[in-house]
Each structure stands twice: as C-alpha cells, then as structure tokens.
Amino acid sequence: MDSREPGAERPERARPAPHSLTGVGLAVLDPTGRVLLGLGHDGRWELPGGKVDTGEDFETAAARELAEETGLTVPATAVRILAVLVDGFNGLTRVTAAAVTERATGTPRVTEPDKIVHWHWFAREALPSALFPPSASVLDRLWPETARRGATAVRHYRVLGDTPAQRG
C-alpha cells in the first residue's frame, strides 16, 4: 500500500532532470516596420530574447529580456505571442515563444557587450542571411510570406488570436 498523500509525486518524478530550454524571441518593430537585430560575437544576428524564468509568462519574459539586453522598454501587455516553436538542439528540446511588439520605447544600446556587438534596425527585404536559428524561426512566423530562414526541423504551433496582420 502506498503511504503517500493522494496526488503527491513519486520521489523520482518530483524534480526531473532538465531536458528542455524554454525561451522567447521578441521581434521589435519600429514605426516603419523595421525589426531590431543584434550582432552576436559569432557573426550571427539575433532578436532580443532569452530564457523564461520560473513562474514567468512569455510576455513578461519578453519585456524583461528586451530591457535587460537593449535598454528598450515595453509593457508586457503590448507583447503578442504569434506561435510556440519546438526544435532540438544539442540533445535538448528547445521551446521558443515567437513574440512581437510595435510599442517599445527608448533607443537601443548594447547592455550586454559579452553577447552583442551592436543593435541595428533592418527592413524586411534587407534581413541578413546569418541569423541565429531560433531568431530566424521567429521571423519566419512574423513574416510567413518570406519564410526561408528557420531550421527545417522546427515545429510551430500557431497561437490563436490577434496578430499584426489581423489588426491592420
């Protein structure tokens, strides 16, 4: 007979070994529709974003990461999730929320020089080809008509609701 409380986890399942990373990539659009990308030290361009902290929702994580990485601010309520992307990387499942905002304020600056060389605004038709794969996949969800950048093994799960195209 099991003496544990009903609903209690078995000890071996209470804290499983991590097998995945959960993050968010935020496409920040300026009033002309350009997207903000940062040049990493490895020569690839990436969106602001990063890991989701314990108990944090995707929108809050996106707003926090944006402020930490660029100095730009946006309320979490002005961040929309377009899709959830799932891929594999070095034996880990990577779950990335593809997010977008058009309401960030401030001037981007390098706040983490160990990660980013500089930030630059790019028009859709002038995106660089060397993109960090999760950022490329987010851009593919943002602009599906020009999707060609993301990894082929990425599954995307569309989030129902309001998208930039539906808002006009």
In short:
The protein is α+β, with helices and mostly antiparallel strands and 168 residues long. Helices cover 18% and strands 30% of the residues. A hairpin with a 2-residue loop joins strand 5 and strand 6.
Describe the 3D structure.
Helix content is 18%, strand content 30%. It has four helices and eight strands. The C terminus is likely disordered. Strand 2 and strand 3 form a beta hairpin. It has a five-stranded mixed beta sheet with strand order 4-1-6-5-8, with helices on both faces. It has a three-stranded antiparallel beta sheet with strand order 3-2-7. The chain is of the alpha+beta class and 168 residues long.
Weakly predicted, low-confidence segments: 163-168
Biggest sheet overview = 5 strands, mixed
Helical residues, percent? 10-25%
- Backbone CA Rg: 18 Å
Instruction: Name the average pLDDT.
Output: 86
User: Order of SSEs, N→C?
Assistant: HEEEEHEEEHEH
- The tally of helices reads 4
Beta percentage is: 25-35%
Widest β-sheet, arrangement of strands: 4-1-6-5-8
Q: What structural class do the secondary elements suggest?
A: alpha+beta
Q: How far is the first residue's CA from the last residue's CA?
A: 61 Å
**Shape field:** globular
Tally the beta strands: 8
